[in-house]
Amino acid sequence: MEIIISETKKNLGEKAATKGAGLIRKAILDRGEANIILATGASQFEMLGALVKEDVDWSSVRAFHLDEYIGIAPEHPASFRKYLKERFVDIVSPMEFIYVQGDSNPEEECMRLGRIIGNYSIDVAFIGIGENGHLAFNDPPANFETEEAYLIVDLAKECRYQQMGEGWFATYDEVPERAISMSIKQIMKSKAIICSVPDLRKATAVKGTVEGIISPDIPASIMRQHESARLYLDSNSALLLSETPYQK
What we know:
Elements: E1 2-6, H1 9-31, E2 34-38, H2 45-51, E3 61-65, E4 67-69, H3 80-92, E5 96-98, H4 106-117, E6 124-127, E7 150-154, H5 157-165, E8 178-182, H6 184-188, E9 192-197, H7 203-211, E10 229-234
Parallel strand pairs: 1-10, 2-3, 2-6, 3-5, 6-9, 9-10
Antiparallel strand pairs: 4-8, 7-8
Helix pairs in contact: 1-2
């Protein structure tokens, strides 16, 4: 796993977007289209803001939604569908965007999404890491073994508090208890992973991801087994890392 550290969140987002856009352009050049995965949350603000400004033929890009709360309508202020529609889809108009319909039957939705994504090879996954080290909504201990592309998951207490802390919900009790999430194995099938992780509150999770054992108890640590994973940090999220010559 390659680690790139920037001084600021803005620079982190720009570097991650530039690298990701280059991979998308290469896929379009090679095959005529590209398939990507997009995450949400506060950690993706700067990256997405830079990505939509990149010179990419978005009409040749198919995008998959990473996760969504169960029972949340698309108009809800915390809906990840709303987040991606406003920050990505409405701006660049991709060829196709496959949303996770969190307010539909969750079992049927997981099956529907699995059938769709099974038809495509993912070129780039743009993701983040949670404060508890989760990837997507795969909270610890994460399921590293399932072959299912999308899962119904129970959200850990730490995860629910993070969603409240980021301002998506006014109280802890308002945060849904379950979600539909892309699985770890499905994320790891991506040809490249661009993982953007700013902020001091992520520093402990980053240290575990980079320097801890690879374990379901630190879900993001699995990225160290990927051949083309890049972890983009700012000076705050990298604060607890050992003195190692990571790329600046």
